[in-house]
Design brief:
globular, 9-stranded mixed β-sheet, about 475 residues, two-stranded antiparallel ribbon, Alkaline Phosphatase, subunit A, alpha/beta
Length: about 475
Amino acid sequence: MPAVNPQLENTLHLTRRSLFARGSAGIGAAALGSLLARDSQAAVAGGLPDLPHHLAKAKRVIYLFQNGAPSHVDLFDYKPKLREWHGRQIPDSVAAGKRFSTMTGNQTERPVLGEITNFARHGRSGATVSDFLPHTAAIADELCFIKSMHTGSVNHAPGITFFLTGSEMAGRPSMGAWLTYGLGRDSEELPSYVVMTSRDKEASCGQIFYDFYWGSGFLPTKFQGVKFRGSGDPVLYLSNPEGMPAAVRRGILDDLARLNEAKLAESGDPEIATRIAQYEMAYRMQTSVPELTDLSKEPRHVLEMYGPEVTKQGSYAYNCLMARRLAERGVKFIQLMHAGWDQHRNLNTQLKIQCQDTDAPSAALVKDLKQRGLLDDTLVIWGGEFGRTPFLQGKIAETKQWGRDHHPYAFTVWMAGGGVRAGHTHGASDEFGFSAVEGKVHVHDFQATVLHLLGIDHERLTYKFQGRHFRLTDVHGHVVKQVLA
């Protein structure tokens, strides 16, 4: 028995009046369809007509965002003063008048907590890296460390939102949305902006992955990130329902596009154009995503490099490998978000576990990109929303509950590839790792630098909304030229 075509069944019940009503926009819809096809081709070719503003060093970004804020003084920023002062009150000259979260804001005693790891210098660059991160240490000469980052946020959601959108308040376009808007897309088969999330196996912290971390804000929604799920189909409803042949689905989508085009011609609503484009992207992803997620042809030595969880969908290791495969296939902005770094009361146990889960996959991604010739034009970023306090949250005698609070005044991020100086350390914090004192880099400076590496002048990539021209860096930001190769 031939498959039932629900679209054809529906036309049998179409009245003469409905036919004429819907057909009246036919000529306009056909013309609009040709314009949309031309716009689609232009988008793939390169986004806004005046971009890039200058020669780009990077073609794509992989942002390994570490939700919860890794402890810079335990992992990268070696400060002998911390062990010297361990257990003693941090000097008022260092910490007095500073703002902290409610967890230590009213804490009367703030004893210095020496690092719980051991540091060593690595590579020709001599970068200091903790023994909790041996794989990262092994690629130190590929990395550019910024040890003078600072921000104004003392809580997670505003801090993450600030890094990803340039504002502590939700509602602005994310960095990936800005890049997709400005630079267009390079792939017809996959979205230009993909997001994947993971968390520590112990579920030690309760941070939420809010959709606005990869939202388009006031930009058209076609520029928002597409989240790949950690289980089942990466994107919902990619598979055809049972009994729905591919040819029937194609016919339905074609007819649906015509109806949407007619409605777009009538109302001019740009979100209808987004809907048309997303339907088409979803159809193409039915073929591209299964190929993307098929790891059967990955060499064993590559899989082993990422660690034992690389084939476990939803793990950080799996997402890192997917990031490399997405980069190979033309995806422009790949945002990995991994929660579990919020060690308020479990620093002595959870920090090491978190490093074990993320160290090898992060380093493997850099090495994998390099051996495939992709690192030179791929910018890899690793870092969180702020650092951790050099002093203890809690009491020094309660060893099992040692922890560090949120710390915005100095912390470390690293970058690799994409036009940054390999084997370089920029900036410095004071002797307690408390405040950035040399080569200070604010969040907006960091964003301006990322855009610069992609060929974008951050002051010229704007979008007019509610009578004002907005940009990712708001009205701030300077390119940190010292980190450029």
